[in-house]
């Protein structure tokens, strides 16, 4: 085990404009242009008779979709992730709009992680385009005692970046520091295609001038509260005494704020993380009504169940807790879930369980978003978990898990009766 005193070298690697960069591999003629990912299938580029491609432009977009990601050329116009596409169109009307292709992004995600693992296998997966890597025990660093440690760290980080580039054709940005907290901040300091190596000695010059919100864990609420207290930068936060912060933010968060501002973070790089749940959801182009749009809703519901089943299968899980998420026209969100007597990965069983959850929701309002979530994940070959007839948030009349065989192909009528 690592003693807290022994310094570590932890890297945070984050792919640059990830989804958009994957698209540029496929459409190299778009390189350097403002490109936004976020369209629907209708925005798929058309190949013309002469072999050239015709792309959809943001100016022609109408709808409620949001920007999933934008190339750096598009960001120069102020376009960013989560911005409405109509708003983005005002800023960059000539930007190219492309539909998202999640299968391609997932495939590229696996490839870049494999390329890192060839050099540095201690990896914590943080999602589709980012990972932490513990470099501390790598021979390339350990065997160079007596050499300039910073230059070995830099060379190793560069080698990892080169391998990612060679395997994927994509660039990434990397921060390498003594811990995860600082590396996460550092990887953003020289984006895109940047490498930032920091020691603790550089905390005052490189980290303290940054706004408090750059710390992963200071969200909008805490950020606003710190701002109201007159604390804008991480350095200003570091000037505060721990008891003063604890008084205002509570014992654990106050102490954490103090530690974070001083660049302290002992969290290990965790290599085996199991997903808590697998889910799919979709936002409709227009709000749908349970009765009038029954056919369309039912179709979407089936598709979501099939997607969740396919995700489960690909990742090698079965699920025992199926749930649904609904967002209504007034943006109110409700969830319902249901624990099955035995885990399943079957699309029909998932749809059926989700259908039972749906029956517990008042469907008189129009629906904006629909999602299905599979939780309590297990490996199919693992010993069956103890059967426990439990439902959470269940109405008394539907508390029992379905008794019929879950793989039954019969489809329950869904969206048939708004409560
Ligand atoms: N993403 C998303 N919704 C968001 C933000 C991001 O679906 N609100 C997706 C698209 C991104 C990917 O996740 O390509 C990675 O997210 P990042 O925050 O790392 O953003 P990018 O990789 O696109 O850009 P950057 O170069 O800033 O890392
Ligand atoms: Mg990224």
Under CATH, the topology of the largest domain is which?
Dna Ligase, domain 1
Total DSSP E strands: 15
What class, by secondary structure content?
alpha+beta
* Average pLDDT reading: 89
Low-confidence stretches: 383-419
Distance from N terminus to C terminus (CA atoms, Å) equals 57 Å
Order of helices and strands: EHEEEEEHHEHEEHHEHEHHHHHEHEEHE
Query: What's the architecture of the largest domain, going by CATH?
Result: 2-Layer Sandwich
Number of helices: 14
Biggest sheet, spatial arrangement of strands = 8-9-1-10-11
- Rounded to the nearest angstrom, the radius of gyration is 25 Å
Ions, cofactors and other bound molecules: 2'-deoxycytidine-5'-triphosphate, magnesium ion
Summed up, what is this model?
The chain is 33% helix and 21% strand.
Describe this structure in words.
It is a single chain. The chain is of the alpha+beta class. It folds into four domains: 10-16 and 104-205, Alpha-Beta Plaits; 18-101, 3-Layer(aba) Sandwich (MutS, DNA mismatch repair protein, domain I); 214-261, Orthogonal Bundle (DNA polymerase, domain 1), CATH 1.10.150.20; 278-398, DNA polymerase, Y-family, little finger domain (Dna Ligase, domain 1, 2-Layer Sandwich), CATH 3.30.1490. Helices cover 33% and strands 21% of the residues. The strands form four sheets. The protein has a five-stranded mixed beta sheet with strand order 8-9-1-10-11. It has a four-stranded mixed beta sheet with strand order 5-7-2-6. A hairpin with a 4-residue loop joins strand 8 and strand 9 (130-134). Helix 13 (294-315) crosses helix 14 (347-358). The longest helix has 22 residues, at 294-315. It is globular. Mean pLDDT is 89; it is low at 383-419. Bound molecules: 2'-deoxycytidine-5'-triphosphate (DCP) and magnesium ion. Magnesium ion binds next to strand 1. Belongs to the DNA polymerase type-Y family. It catalyses: DNA(n) + a 2'-deoxyribonucleoside 5'-triphosphate = DNA(n+1) + diphosphate. Mg(2+) binds at residues 14, 129.
């Amino acid at each position: 085990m690592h003693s807290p005193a022994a310094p570590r070298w932890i890297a945070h690697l984050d792919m640059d404009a990830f989804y958009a960069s994957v698209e540029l591999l496929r459409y190299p003629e778009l390189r350097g242009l403002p490109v936004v990912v976020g369209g629907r299938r209708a925005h798929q580029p058309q190949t013309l008779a002469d072999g050239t491609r015709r792309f959809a432009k943001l100016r022609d977009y109408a709808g409620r979709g949001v920007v999933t990601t934008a190339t750096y050329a598009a960001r120069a116009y102020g376009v960013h992730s989560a911005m409405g596409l109509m708003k983005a169109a005002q800023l960059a009307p000539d930007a190219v709009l492309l539909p998202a292709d999640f299968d391609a992004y997932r495939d590229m995600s696996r490839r870049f992680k494999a390329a890192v693992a060839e050099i540095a296998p201690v990896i914590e997966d943080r999602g589709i385009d980012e990972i932490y890597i513990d470099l501390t025990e790598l021979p390339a660093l350990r065997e160079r005692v007596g050499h300039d440690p910073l230059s070995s760290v830099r060379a190793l980080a560069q080698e990892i970046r080169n391998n990612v580039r060679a395997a994927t054709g994509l660039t990434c940005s990397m921060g390498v520091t003594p811990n995860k907290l600082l590396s996460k901040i550092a990887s953003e300091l020289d984006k895109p295609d940047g490498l930032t190596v920091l020691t603790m000695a550089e905390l005052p010059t490189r980290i303290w001038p940054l706004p408090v919100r750059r710390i992963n864990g200071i969200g909008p609420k805490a950020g606003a509260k710190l701002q109201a207290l007159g604390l804008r930068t991480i350095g200003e936060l570091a000037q505060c005494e721990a008891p003063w912060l604890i008084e205002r933010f509570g014992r654990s968060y106050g102490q954490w704020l103090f530690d974070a501002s001083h660049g302290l973070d002992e969290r290990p790089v965790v290599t085996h993380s199991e997903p808590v749940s697998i889910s799919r959801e979709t936002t409709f182009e227009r709000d749908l009504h349970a009765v009038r749009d029954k056919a369309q809703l039912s179709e979407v519901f089936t598709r979501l169940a099939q997607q969740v089943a396919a995700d489960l299968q690909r990742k090698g899980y079965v699920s025992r807790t199926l749930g649904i998420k609904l967002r209504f026209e007034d943006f109110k969100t409700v969830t319902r879930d249901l624990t099955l007597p035995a885990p399943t990965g079957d699309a029909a069983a998932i749809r059926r369980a989700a259908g039972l959850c749906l029956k517990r929701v008042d469907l008189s309002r129009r629906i904006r978003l629909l999602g299905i979530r599979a939780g309590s994940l297990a490996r199919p070959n693992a010993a069956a978990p103890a059967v426990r007839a439990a439902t959470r948030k269940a109405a008394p009349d539907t508390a029992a898990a379905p008794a019929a065989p879950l793989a039954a192909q019969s489809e329950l009528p869904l969206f048939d009766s708004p409560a």
